[in-house]
Design a protein that fits this description.
The chain is of the alpha/beta class. The chain has 20 helices and 8 strands. It has 2 domains: 8-118 and 192-297 and 406-421, Aminopeptidase (3-Layer(aba) Sandwich); 133-177 and 299-402, no CATH class. The chain binds zinc ion (ZN).
Length: 422
């Protein structure tokens, strides 16, 4: 097991040491801002295997697009280098490690960048920004001003519930979480210009993809999916070669969404941005396949602590049961118990947030993949009380995000790797 780096600066220093010792040339894209200790911020890139022009397959493995999630990404990158796999690649394969796509967020323990942009909502046409008009209705609930902010006041949940009742859960999910481009201080702000991280990634793609016939992007995140387990997300239509690749590479971990299905919930994701950037490039003819590698960190025990802080009480017996269920891998059972307690204290609102998901999705006509994805217990938790509360920037201001404790084991590393690298 590899523990998360102490902080961005030590993660960066060991990345640079490690890849140089392993014989890679490093290029650094310097960021205009500084870290909390005045340290330099940069996105660092190390290439292994065939040089540009000679690699038919290029695999980009990136960490820290959502800044604070860079700890797990770095853990995986380190495992890869230390395993020696990168020294014995097939002659026509190159692996490009991208450390800290959003170094500002990594250093300051934030998901977003220095402009409050969620980089994974930023891959849009900035001259025609997507509209999310209903976001204005919930902005003040999600994002109270400092003098309005009261960590004990849960009345914002009623406002969100109203949106769910009016618009349905799928639309509410999109409004709250799918990206908005009108409120620069709000949550899930996708930016009104191309972010530093997006421009840097596009520069890296331009430098490293020439000559490739297959370009694969593996972008490492933490959060979604069963706690401590791997889940792989992909946006591609069923008949695309990329979908076939996903099915054969990650048969047990893949959730694929059709392109229009994804657009119904999320805008500006990096994966589809990668596909269209390569397709629009005059010099490149590569097939692309982009995957988001998620290590699940939704932790019922942490949920219990978070709820206890805002006044929901659990008996010692309940806490012990939740802990025991979690230890035995019964995450769904643990979450059910938490929801039951919330139902008691908040009268049906928790039920509306959690248990009625499958029914609502059925009514919304969600496809089987989407239903499977959104009905996973952890995904239910992902849009339930704790997660919505954690996504409130004001709360984050008062309580800095903690780096996920997700550690990458060698087993996870092998599951993550496409066969071309195993
Ligand atoms: Zn993420």
């Amino acid at each position: 097991m590899i523990p998360p780096a102490q902080d961005y600066a030590s993660s960066r220093a060991s990345f640079l040491d490690l890849v140089r010792v392993a014989g890679s040339v490093v290029e650094s894209h310097l960021h205009p801002e500084q870290g909390p200790a005045g340290e330099e911020l940069a996105c660092d890139v190390a290439r292994f295997g065939a040089p540009p022009g000679d690699a038919a397959t290029v695999v980009l493995i990136s960490s820290g697009l959502h800044g604070v999630e860079g700890h797990a990404g770095w853990g995986l990158q380190r495992l890869l280098v230390e395993s020696g796999r990168l020294a014995t690649l097939a002659p026509s394969v190159a692996v490009v490690l991208v450390h800290a796509v959003n170094p500002f967020g990594f250093a300051w323990s934030r998901r977003v960048d220095h402009d409050n942009i969620d980089v994974n909502r930023n891959f849009v046409d900035v001259d025609h920004l997507p509209a999310n008009p209903r976001y204005a209705e919930v902005d003040s609930a999600l994002n109270p001003t400092a003098d309005q902010f009261d960590p004990d006041d849960l009345s914002f949940l009623a406002e969100l519930q109203e949106l769910v009742d009016l618009a349905g859960m799928l639309e509410a999910f999109r409004v709250i979480s799918g990206g908005q481009y009108s409120h620069p201080q709000g949550v899930q702000f996708g930016g009104q210009h191309e972010s530093w991280s997006r421009r840097t990634l596009e520069r890296i793609w331009a430098d490293h993809l020439p000559g490739a016939v297959r370009a694969v992007a593996l972008d490492i995140h933490t959060g979604l999916g069963p706690t401590g387990r791997l889940t792989v997300f992909q946006t591609a239509n069923e008949d695309e070669p990329a979908a076939e690749l996903g099915r054969s590479w990650f048969p047990d971990y893949l959730y694929r969404a059709d392109r229009d299905e994804e657009q119904a919930t999320d805008t500006g994701l990096m994966g589809p941005g990668f596909d269209s950037w390569v397709a629009a490039s005059e010099d490149l003819v590569a097939d692309t396949a982009a995957f988001v590698i998620e290590f699940g960190t939704h932790d019922p025990i942490q949920g219990v602590s978070a709820l206890t802080r805002v006044g929901v009480s659990f008996t010692e017996g309940q806490k012990a049961s939740i802990k025991a269920m979690q230890e035995h891998g019964n995450i769904a059972g643990a979450q059910k118990l938490i929801l039951a307690e919330l139902n008691k204290e908040f009268g049906g609102s928790a039920e509306a947030f959690g248990r009625t998901w499958p029914g609502i999705l059925e009514k919304a006509g969600a496809s089987t993949t989407m239903k499977k994805l959104l009905s996973t217990p952890n995904q239910v938790a992902g849009t339930s009380l704790c997660s919505i509360m954690n996504s409130r920037p004001s709360i984050q201001k008062h309580r800095p995000q903690r780096p996920a404790k997700a550690t990458a084991s060698d087993r996870l590393a092998s599951q993550t790797l496409p066969p071309v690298l195993r």
